[in-house]
Amino acid sequence: MATSFVRIRTIGVHEQLALMRLLHPQFRATVQEGVLVCRGAIRPTSLNRTYRVRVEYRAPEAPLSFVEDPPLRRRNPDEHIPHTYAGDRPCLYLPGVNEWRSDKRIAQTIIPWLSEWLFYYEVWRATGEWMGGGVHPTGPREPRGRTREAA
After folding, report:
1. Which of 35, 49, 139 is closest to 91 using CA atoms?
2. Residues with Cβ < 8 Å from 18, sequence gap 6 or more?
3. Is the separation of the CB atoms in 131 and 120 below 8 Å?
4. Contacts for 120-129 with beta carbons within 8 Å, 24 or more apart?
5. How many domains does the chain have?
6. Tens digits of per-residue pLDDT, 23-62?
7. Which of 93, 96, 102, 146 would be 60's cystine partner, CB 3.0–4.6 Å?
8. pLDDT band at 73 (very low <50, low <70, confident <90, very high)
9. pLDDT band at 151 (very low <50, low <70, confident <90, very high)
C-alpha cells in the first residue's frame, strides 16, 4: 500500500505580517532579519490583567511566544508554572501532532491561544490548579526556533 502525503503551503513571514496587521491592528508587527516579530497587549477578559506579549516566527519553524510584562510569577518559589518551557515561555499546543503547522495563521491560532493560556494562568495563580487542560511535552518535543533578545 502506498503512503500518500499532503503537501502544505507554508505561510511566509510577510503574509503572516499582513494577516497580523489586518486581524490585530493593536499589535506592532515587523519583519526583522527574516523573523516576524509581533508585540502587543492581551487582556483575556475584563477581569484579567493586561499582558504585553511578543510572538516571533521564522518560517517554517514553530512560533515562539513570550510574556514580557508583567513577568509570569510562580505561586511559590519552588513551584513550576504549568505548561511552560524554559524561561517560563508559554506552551500553547502539543508539538508534533499538527495542532500548529506552518500553513496556519498566527493571528488566528497563536494569538488567541496565548490569550486563552493567560486566562488559565491567572486561574492557576488564584487556585493552584491548572484548568486549561492539554498535555505538556517534555524533552525534545519542545518546538524548535530561534529566540531573539527583546529589543
Report:
1. 139
2. none
3. yes
4. 120/83, 121/72, 121/81, 121/90, 122/44, 122/48, 122/49, 124/75, 124/81, 124/82, 125/73, 125/75, 128/75
5. 1
6. 999 999 999 999 999 999 999 999 999 999 999 999 999 9
7. 102
8. very high
9. very low
